[in-house]
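Page 42, continued from yesterday. The earlier attempt failed because a stray header line got pasted into the input along with the sequence. Redoing it now with the clean sequence only.
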Amino acid sequence: MLLSANIIAAILLLTEGLLAYLAFSGLTNSCRPAEGSTEFPCQVSDLFNENFQGIPVIGQICQFYPMLNVSAVPILTITLRNNFMQVVPVKRWIRNSGCCSFLLDDHKRLVKGVWSIIFTIPVIVIVMFERDPQVMISYTGGICGPFILFLIPTTLVMYGRKKLGEANKYNFNASPYQSTWLIVVIVIFAFVTLFMALYGAISGTAGE
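This time it went through. Structure tokens are written below.
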């Protein structure tokens, strides 16, 4: 599945470059400040990667990041599907309705692929009708991200350690990073990130 995702990522990146070339190659405005014009829309370089070469370090990240996102889709959709199945009784609804019963046989690769497509449809629809999807990402990633990545896992770790200590059991999977100051640093970083995301969202709304 990961091999297929990387092949699809390469095809999509090639398509992205071709679409950019078709959209902007006929324009005469330059995007480069060195050439005295930054008017948009402007002409892109003949090769897609050349548009980012002038940015040290970040340029290389910009070139690789789209491929990373596309190649990570299988892992993300599998995780989303498993979490969704645990929270929402979808299989029970399918059994009761008697419709699309083939989706219950989710140990097959084809059915797993169908579930991945189902969870990808909302994203495709949003991108098709939302001109600036970055606004939604700033809310979902910038605001929900600190909770999902930092605060909720830290809370689970703290309560897990507490229960383990009360039970006086040895955990062979225990992390070597047991210091309390690490938890404090993570929590502080999470709140700083959350504050910056909220500030950016509020200031952006006020600017509009």
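Notes: Residues 2-60 form one domain.
Reminder to self: strip header lines before submitting.
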